[in-house]
Amino acid sequence: MTVKLKICGIRTEEEIDMVNEALPDYIGFVFAESRRKVDLHKALLLRRKLDERIKSVGVFVDEIIDHVIEAVKSKAIDIVQLHGNEDDTYIRTLKASVPVQVIKAVRMGEKNNVLLDSPLSDFLLADSFAGSGRTFDWSIALQSEKPLFIAGGIGEENIERAFEIFQPYAFDLSSSVETNGYKDREKIRKITMILRSLNGVKDE
């Protein structure tokens, strides 16, 4: 299985250029309160410049559901990522309104075994907590029947170990590919090259 890559927290045209060069599988627009926050107007402008091979994910935290639906209908985002207390009723209502895949984030605790579950989501994301940039305890055994994103402190210094431990569906990176709070072209390029190598993809 090829492990995919998501670069989250994209907010400038320069950063769009960076990801268009590196071609990760996904990028994330953060609509929740954050220093990386973008509004729908900005996300639409950036999406129009995004390479069509890259899927855009909208990150929300306990957002009014109509706002999420509007973001999907506008085509600013392809996938919805929920990082708050959204339950299956919320996801059911969302999916009844728009045909969209959902990533549900799960905050990792300190149990020896963690069953990750959100029956109506399409993917799960394991993280320490939103935007912390810190790893959770990787000795925890994760159990999930859904494709799993791993987030929190993944960078060039530890992605190989994380790859060996989790063999996830995808890695989700943000602060580890930044310098002074903004995405760094060379860091994005390097982490992309490392993951491609781990996946057995040879450079052309």
Defining traits:
204 residues, alpha/beta, TIM Barrel, 12 strands, globular
Q: What is the tally of helical segments?
A: 6
Radius of gyration: 16 Å
**Name of the CATH architecture:** Alpha-Beta Barrel
Overall domain count = 1
User: What's the shape?
Assistant: globular
Count of beta strands = 12
The profile of the biggest β sheet is: 8 strands, parallel, barrel
Q: Approximately how much helix is present in the residues? A: 25-40%
The first-level CATH class name: Alpha Beta
What is the average of the pLDDT values?
Answer: 92
Return the string of H and E elements: EHEHEHEHEEEEEHEEEH
At CATH level 3, the topology is TIM Barrel
Unreliable runs: none
Strand content: 15-25%
- Secondary structure class reads alpha/beta
Q: How far apart are the first and last residues' alpha carbons, in Å?
A: 20 Å
Q: Give me the CATH superfamily.
A: Aldolase class I
Strand order of the largest sheet: 1-2-3-4-5-7-9-10
Explain what this protein looks like in three dimensions.
The protein is an alpha/beta fold and 204 residues long. The protein has a single domain, classed as TIM Barrel (Alpha-Beta Barrel). Helix content is 30%, strand content 25%. It has six helices and twelve strands. The strands form three sheets. The chain has an eight-stranded parallel beta barrel. A two-stranded parallel sheet has the order 6-8. Strands 11-12 form a two-stranded antiparallel ribbon. Helix 1 runs parallel beside helix 6. The longest helix has 14 residues. The two termini are 20 Å apart. The mean pLDDT is 92.
